[in-house]
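FAQ
Q: What does a multi-component entry look like?
A: The components come first, one per line:
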Amino acid sequence: MLIFILKRIAGMIPAMLAISILAFTVIQLPPGDYVSTYAAQIAQSGESVDSAVLNNLRERYGLGENVVVQYFKWIGGIARGDFGDSFEWNQPVTDLVWGRMGMTALISLLTLLTMWAVSLPIGIISAVRQYSIIDYLTTTFAFLATAVPEFLVAIVLLYISTMWFGVSVGGLFSPAFENAPLSWAKAWDFLQHAWIPILVIGLGSTAALTRIMRANLLDELHKPYVEAARAKGLPETRLILAYPVRVALNPFISTIGWVLPALISGELIVSTVLNLPTAGPLLLQALKSQDMYLAGAFILLTGGLVLIGTLISDILLAISDPRIRMS
Amino acid sequence: MKHMRLAALTGISFLALGSASVWAQNYQQSPVLDALVASGDLPAVSERVGAEPRVIVPVSEVGKYGGTFRGGMVGGNDRNMLFTYFGYEPLLAWDADWTGEVVPNIATGYTASEDSTSFTFTLREGMKWSDGSPFTADDVAFFIQDVLPDEKLFPTKPGWLTVEGELPTITVSSPTEFTISWTKPNGLFIINAASVYGVQLALLNKAYCSQFMPKYNPDAEANATAAGAADWAEHMTNMCGVGIENIQRWRNPERPTLEAWHITEPYEAGATRVAFERNPYYWKVDTSGNQLPYIDGLSISVNAEAQTLLLSVLAGEIDYEVRHTANASNLPVLAEGMEAGNFYISARESRVGNALAISVNLNSHDPVKAGIFGNKDFRVALSHALDRTAIIDTLFLGQGTPQQVSPRQGTPYYNERLATQYLEYNVEEANRLLDSIGLDKRGGNGLRLAPDGSPLVVNVAAVTALGANADAAELLVQYWQAVGIDARFSAQDRTRFYEEKTASQHDVVVWGATSGGIDVFIDPRDYFPFSTESNFAVDWAKFYIGDGGVEPPEYVKQQWALYDQIKGTSDTEQQAALFQQLLEITADQFYQIGISTAIPQLAVVSNNLGNVPEGTPTGWIHPDPGTLNTEQFYFKN
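Then the predicted structure of the entire assembly, as tokens:
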């Protein structure tokens, strides 16, 4: 088992390097650089900026240099734990990313757990009670939820709460707690706000997972080993949970690999709409203003998170299914 | 001579206004400070405001203490929202109506030498920083002698503080009196000192900020390293925010300030909210002797998107918003949400020279286009081809009247000929002019060919993120195609737009016009090649600022010479006369095409917010709401 995990981790290193090269290339693709975006923003608000100041900035940030040189400077810094400075915030990127990435990871994890907690029982019930009222209801709901994009749900939610209830949803904390140190009261405040993004981000994937669970379980329900167990007089609930559900879980677990990136990219848009203090809005802002070290750090870390998600699902699979561990 | 008399007189009248000691015995303070004074942690209010506080006449009534002001910023680089709302504390200030008069603020008055080379300021007796330390002429001298000349802190010197590259010198004659001087005249110094830029002179507390300089503290470099900064200059910038536009200005809660509120929750990496609390040592009082500000604290949300801020406005969670959401395209949704959100929409008078400035590139790098664009008749034809009334109705809901890019009517800088020439919608005349300059040959598609027979495609670029500009560009293209010009709308990203324009690779760009009032002297980019923002001739402007470029024809140099003469005097009448000469050349050359007089800038104001005047002017040089004295805003309930 340990060797299996180590091999997987070793495989992640080249993948990570590939992600870093890709991230850096993508950031460099659009014309211009941070300084020209900055100049355009300043000028638009009627403020004026000296071209000598801009040239100074370009020099300070080394923006004139060759892309390859810039890449090696960047990746070399990261190897030493230095992600460079954010142009826009004038602060080390490290100060910016960890808190935001932590919040992203927390939201994603909570969403994943909620998704499982909801889709597993619903999937089981709608498989066992196939073509019942519950099955039809969940099926209809699942199709709707998968079809509607998450950001639209977020916007509709915002519209309803603002126009009908006069409160703007958004953020993860009440103003009083926003910059307060961690406490039980703050955690409670967080949970009161967090259910909205969790609901919005998880909605589509939950529906999809419910369908997967239902389909997998239906495949298993009529297999001979179930009939045999039933014939031996096992209580129905115990029977279903102990045998077919366990088998049906296999593809369920292996979806973590794709659920995690879907969650994170869904989180990006939803967070921007809902104004959450997660990585999403900051990444979007960094990309728009070509704040390349900040954007690079986020893309790299998000890529890392996806790789970790895949690793987790591999490990869980290996635990739940001996065939994978052995092969 | 005339000028000096004027300045001396103003100086005296300033002093008369500034002496407020009649109330010295009975100042009042916010109840939140009572306990601190009672416990002895804070001196009495009369000691804190000093002997000569500035007396603010409230806009409508004497306000009440208390409350938290709610505002919103967008993105990570919106520091100037804080600056223009709460950070406008210059030595001398503009009046709220921007008549061009400067009023006392940190300084009670000034006198200028006859040749405008030296300026003597008088400060208030007993004025203090937010930490209680005295504010004196030494603090200003610290900036001018130690900070400004430093290559690390100020690699490029602010243009308004230099005269032909020469930095000012300062002589301190007493704690409340100092003289700033150059060897050559700086006639625009006073209006710059009253604009946003002037805040720079009284930004740094010497006692606090000097600890970061090796000159004053031998451990400065070691302290910087310990704090994780690259060198002492970076450390000092982080702690003191040495420039008016540095984001670090809004970061360090320890930094003493002269502003009405000081920051408590900093504007830093990934913050979603910044907060301020009242400066107990603020040096302004109202006419009843109440120490300002009325409002105890500020809470400003940092939003990822302007749309999120708009929702906050609609939910009634913003008390004043002028920057991101209060624009014409949001007017319907704002009007609909007024009642539920408990706010009203106020119109601010925008003092720019036009609603839009359409620039044809006179420095085109394409030789064929350079010849055509450089021909004035071509630009006149483009102007006649536009139905401005229809454009104004479509884009600006009928607000505004047709006008070219020009200083505003009613100011001494207004030039009738420049403002009104070639406004008439006359397709026949446009066609005649185009035919007459060798564009009479048409291609297979019926559109005009260049004189050499090649197709003439004119790209009209606008930034899609700035909706009004892009909408205008689409309309222009239709009008110009109607006179046979193969004009094409080029929707661009902001960065791309800037890259292309700065490299002078554009054909025609649609952008906002700037200064139209007294600020024409501070930023005259629309009237001659002055900066790389002079979109009609970027290469000529580069030559002017010494950044490469192309040598321009004689008439441009004449304009530069006239501008130098304006800087050489502080006699406002003479400045206006010289500027009229300069504008005559602008009118002759017809550099830019305008559409309409400036359209109002909207502001969203909470019904609960008191002392907010109506219809005041706005702009970067005269920031809104900073010039309305936000310290006298108060909550009615």
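Q: Is there any commentary attached?
A: Sometimes. For this entry: The longest strand of chain B covers residues 343-350.
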